[in-house]
Sequence to fold (372 residues):
Amino acid sequence: MAPRIADRKLIRIAEKVAAGTRLSFDDGVTLYRSTDILTLGYLANVVRERLSGNKTYFNVNRHINPTDVCVAACKLCAFGKQKRNPTAYTMSLEQVWHTAGIGYSEQVSEFHVVGGLHPQLGLDWFVRMFRGLKERFPAVHLKALTMVEIGYLARRERLSIRETLERLVDAGVDSLPGGGAEIFTDRVRRIICDHKIDGNEWIETARTAHRLGLKSNATMLYGHIETDEDRVDHLLRLRALQDDTGGFQTFIPLAFHPQNTPMHHLPMTSGFQDIKAIAVSRLLLDNFPHIKAYWIMMTPKIAQVAQRFGADDIDGTVVEEKIYHDAGAKTPQALRRDQLFRLIRKAGREPTERDTLYNEVSRDEALLTLAV
Fold:
């Protein structure tokens, strides 16, 4: 049943949603500025169920972060460290392959591989790493390297983005995770991540990847110094690229965790902000098949609520997440497959296991044992 619309500015937007009409920049700003969270959630849920019905997707995946050494010094980051930092680490190739195999079972369908911008690890090192992973785990999908990492490697090797991506694909990379987008606005990016590629370069790297046949995700970091207009601009630039390439699978709003960063004075986002971020992204990104509520960042409970506010994905088992835990995340570093099932069912949704490309995975539940 539709709620009574408390914010009268949302009436016209509700009419557009009912008619399947694309929302505008001004509509996006109106959504972000509204406090009528029940109407936002209802409208986002209409779109969500139009696309995914009652299903909530998850996968059995493992995160691998080969190094936290990074030449950038982004104010938003608690993960990256200078090489001289005594707590910094860089795995050997053998350590990467060993980490991938810890607790490995045939249920693991994805390795999610991202790390810092290491001054001494070139493209050849990554090519060997990915080939080694594929040799050892040929059935596992490699979702690896952000647009930022790809841009850094291309610049370091004096190659084009296309040439760099072609070498990575040849080594076994199957898709891209979509991190590092942060906020595209130059004003914000100069303050929070001025050592990274700019917003236009991120977009063009994604465009090149999509044209090579790679699928990717896309992200947005919110809850720092950005404005409502910055967020809407970010979302609509992603929407425009999706119109062109159709290469994005999932959008993941990421809440900024200020602890242990140079921006530690900023407050954490609230559950209200997190739910709104999910709802607004679902309403504006009409051409994105999926919206993910990343439980690592927003807690499993908020991720459950998000399944009624526009999200249709809750991520996966993850196993040893480092980046957001370095920034103070208090969530677990992994969830078992059966825990994800229970979370989704308690949210009133149908748990649907997927692979990275959203092909549904069928398993014999009676015989299933989890080894991750």
